[in-house]
Amino acid sequence: MLYWLTELSDGGDFFNLFRYITFRAGGAFLTALIFGFIFGKPLINVLRRKQGKGQPIRDDGPEGHFVKAGTPTMGGLLIIGALVTSTLLWARMDNPFVWMVLFVTIAYALIGFADDYAKVSKQNTAGVSGKVRLLLGFLIAGIASYWAAAYHPADLSYQLALPIFKDTLINLGLFFIPFAMFVIVGAANAVNLTDGLDGLAIMPVMIATGTLGVIAYAVGRVDFTEYLDVHYVPGTGELLIFAAGVAGGGLGFLWYNAPPAAVFMGDTGSLALGGALGAIAVATKHELVLGIVGGLFVAEALSVIIQVLYFKRTGKRVFLMAPIHHHYEKKGWAEPQIVIRFWIIAVILAMIGLATLKVR
Predict the structure, then answer these.
(1) What pTM was estimated for this model as a whole?
(2) Taking a C-beta distance cutoff of 8 angstroms, is the pair 299, 324 a contact?
(3) Rounded Cα–Cα distance for residues 239 and 83 (Å)
(4) What is the pLDDT of residue 131?
(5) How many domains does the chain have?
(6) Is residue 332 part of a domain?
(7) What is the pLDDT of residue 59?
(8) Would you state the pLDDT for residue 132?
């Protein structure tokens, strides 16, 4: 919205700053951060008052989690409110990729909100049926995938770009749509599975989103793409502003979510942020790089899949408990120890993902 202040500029004044994506990204970060600090405590008070007993705790979960009973959930509302406000304020509103990512984020947040509400109101961990959640998730992802393909350049539309191989494109044709749907839905559910310890999910989300934001900025500039030998996707640079909003909103939320958490993100936040990661990857043609940058989320999801399949086949478990962060809890690791070490892994994977921009 503030981009339109550039119409008041003569090219050499303060208003000219609003032409620069990096300046507006900084504004988005600060806006989201301030939003989180201003509305964090009041939102937590409202959630605590409305929810009473807070998020129900799994009976079969780690023993240490029972002390968290009574902690309110739906804290993702704070993050989503911060990033949506900052994006609408600082991004160009004529950019289709911005609207595509916002659509996925808000739509997945609504699914997560319905799931959290069902859990809190019924005081059980069942929530909305998994089949319903997946059906709605794939529907939203399908719309977003067509949306992205329609605005990709003709030579990139329906193509799969491979990291490292600079000129290699695989023409998926109409199969690109289900592939992109899987990326978005998979990312949403992988982040959702990761959100099991105080502060565990939000920092890796911020790291991964920030990394994809840098990639979006790079592939949205002709000069950068020529230097890096990556595919140019005009318009994606504006997604850096969305990523900055996630970083600011995430830090505001982490202030209250740091152990011991005053509020949980809930599915409201985890599904929305995971879906946003997938949507940015699809928009920037870096779907496979997301698997590297978000490798921590991939590992969490794979641990659940492996556990379920192996148990059905043999009646035995590979991990003491899945997702894998619970495995380390069962092994005696302290919660902060798990969280910090997983953050370190997320940073390492982000650096590897960024390196694919230049390793060609």
Answers:
(1) 0.95
(2) yes
(3) 12
(4) 93
(5) 1
(6) no
(7) 63
(8) 95
Domain hosting 255: range is 2-288
Tokens of 183: 């990326």
pLDDT at position 61? 62
The answer to whether residue 334 is domain-embedded is: no
Question: Which residues have C-beta within 8 Å of that of residue 214, sequence separation ≥ 6?
Answer: 240, 243, 354
Residue 337 lies in a domain: no
* Residue 356: φ, ψ to 5°: -65, -15
Q: Which two tokens stand for residue 35?
A: 């939003």
| Three-state secondary structure of the chain | CHHHHHHHCCCCCHHHHHHCHHHHHHHHHHHHHHHHHHHHHHHHHHHHHHHCCCCCCCCCCCHHHHHHCCCCCCCHHHHHHHHHHHHHHHCCCCCHHHHHHHHHHHHHHHHHHHHHHHHHHHCCCCCCCHHHHHHHHHHHHHHHHHHHHHHCCCCCCCEEECCCCCCCEEECHHHHHHHHHHHHHHHHHHHHHHCCCCCCCHHHHHHHHHHHHHHHHHHCCHHHHHHHCCCCCCCHHHHHHHHHHHHHHHHHHHHHHCCCCCCCCHHHHHHHHHHHHHHHHHHCCCHHHHHHHCHHHHHHHHHHHHHHHHHHHHCCCCCCCCCHHHHHHHCCCCHHHHHHHHHHHHHHHHHHHHHCCCCC
- 135-172, pLDDT tens digit by residue? 999 999 999 999 999 999 999 999 999 988 877 899 99
pLDDT tens digits, one per residue of 198-241: 999 999 999 999 999 999 999 999 999 999 989 999 999 999 99
Distance of CA 90 to the CA centre of its chain: 19
So what's the pLDDT on residue 60? 60
d(CA 197, CA 269): 14
Query: Which segments in the chain show pLDDT lower than 50?
Result: none
Q: What is the pLDDT of residue 313?
A: 94
Is 265 within 8 Å of 80 (Cβ atoms)? no
Q: Which residues contact 319 (CB under 8 A, 6 or more apart)?
A: 303, 306, 307, 326, 327
Closest by CA position to 336, among listed 233, 204, 200: 200
On whether residue 52 sits in a domain, the answer given is: yes
Angstrom distance (rounded) from CA 307 to CA 309:
6
